[in-house]
Amino acid sequence: MANLEKRRLKVSTGSLPSDKTALETLPFHHPFVSQASLSGLLVDVVFPENITLANALSKLETRYVKGRTRLSVIVVNGDSFGSGEVTMLTTNTVGSSQDVWCIDPRGVLSLCVCKETYESLGIVGKPLPFKGRSDQHDHDRIPELSTTKDAEVRQVRCKKRESTDVYIPSSSLGARPTLAGSKGKKPASYEDEIEDWNRDLMDLFEWAGLAALNSPRISARDRADPYIAVYEPPQPSSVGNVTHLCWRGLLAPTFVHTIIEQTCKSIESQASTAQKPIFAFITVHGVTTIPISYLSPGGEGKEAQAFVRLPRQDTEDTWSLLVNATPSGGVSWTLLECIGQWDTRWG
């Protein structure tokens, strides 16, 4: 059995409106979100049946363009685009070609090419900083953007699925335990509290993943052979209906931002009068076959920094956001980010 690739997790938490900025900028740090024909990925939103939230999200739609062009044409004619609102990427799959590229929202072209292509181009780049992978080179240059002729415009509309009679967590995730006021000394109970909170966190996100997959394991009617599958939903749970919305296509950061914004607004408007738990999971999958994985926030007078990775199909670049109404009538959020091996974002 092959060894599984190392994956790294990062958990962030916050509340609204105090930590609103972090959510507003989140999609722009992960600028490439795509569909099955490119990388097998999409955007999922899962939540207990909620007509208000479903109506707000299901009407959202966008579009993208797919066509053929030469990279040299994009570079030469790039002056016609100066807004920085366009993203482009090659649909080459790693394996059919080792040379891939993308243009991020900054208007920066990034290429990851094999040694032979690098030497023939005669441009200045640097080897990827991964052991055994230094024969591939990363190179940035800053053109503006261009269009292609005879391009096909593709509409991306929401697809909706309802699952009935499934187990739904009856309680939202509480605040993450902190060491505030402990003056650097961990209370005896802290380790137990953070361990319990992490377990509850993983149970909730596992449930969301199963719901997005329409797994029979969360069905109240499931009678799986315990020798084949054993699953216990987060406790306490109740039986109800779950809505799953998804968008398949090359999705701009502005569109993903709209999904997050509408979700937060809808939950916030219902939080103070909610008679039952109100929450939603937004799961976003990045394009792993391009050299750029993440754009760091740029400070005053500073450009955002791009973090590179080894482009591959079989790797991880996913983030999932839980937005939930709190018992006090507020709204909190928890972000879980996961990246694979050979990604410079976290060292």
Structural key phrases:
single chain, 347 residues, alpha+beta, 2 domains, seven-stranded antiparallel beta sheet, five-stranded antiparallel beta sheet, 29% strand, RNase_P_Rpp40, ribonuclease MRP activity, ribonuclease P activity
In short:
The chain is an alpha+beta fold. The chain has 7 helices and 16 strands.
Strand content: 25-35%
Overall number of domains: 2
- Average pLDDT figure: 80
User: What proportion of the residues is helical, as a percent range?
Assistant: 10-25%
Task: Explain this structure.
The protein has 347 residues and is of the alpha+beta class. The chain contains 7 helices and 16 strands. Strands 1-16-15-12-2-11-10 form a 7-stranded antiparallel sheet, with helices on both faces. A 5-stranded antiparallel sheet has the order 4-5-6-8-7. The chain has a two-stranded antiparallel ribbon with strand order 3-9. Helix 1 runs antiparallel to helix 7 (253-270) and helix 3 packs antiparallel against helix 7. It is globular. 33% of the residues are buried. The model is unreliable at 35-41 and 132-147 (pLDDT under 50). One of its GO terms (cellular component) is ribonuclease MRP complex.
